[in-house]
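quick one: magnesium ion bound model?
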Amino acid sequence: MTLARAVFLDRDGVLIEDVHLIVDPAKVRVLPGVVDALTRLKSAGFKLVVVTNQTVVARGLATEADVAHLNRHMAGLLTMQGAPSLDAIHVCPHHPKASLPQYRQICECRKPAPGMLVRAARELGVALSRSYLVGDRLTDIAAGARAGCRTVLVETGRHVDAPIESAEPVDPSLRPDHVCRDLAAAADWILGDA
Ligand SMILES: [Mg+2]
Ligand SMILES: [Zn+2]
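yep, here:
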């Protein structure tokens, strides 16, 4: 049996507008071109897997259930707009300096660690070396590269921000395999490359 391929998708700044520390589902805005991009990737046989760090949980601003609720709302908006269903959504609720002690840990899932990708690949039967990651921060790119995927940085805004806090610093010389404007352009590149 050949293993499937996946496109791992960061959530904030790739699928939806990056509203800092978003907790309110009413603030979810699907970015332009996302529905069409997801449709084309799924048609080409890629599993669609969201991998998102949610510091809001570690900071006590939302519960894991709140985040799951927002993610379901986002998935609902996407399908309502005609997108195919997402195959999985993985969330890291941890932070090395979390205000809530139960989330204060150096975990294997918080990007730049590759844990969410590795776990999703195992669960869905995905070959990481034939898969892609799309993110808007270097920490996303590091997670994708460490998992053995090809990586695409989308320049939707956050790519210029300082790196997020992580247990291990991201190598600043790390380069994505491709840089482009948004998920639509990322899908063009992935479909041409695959
Ligand atoms: Mg992001
Ligand atoms: Zn984690």
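The mean pLDDT is 94.
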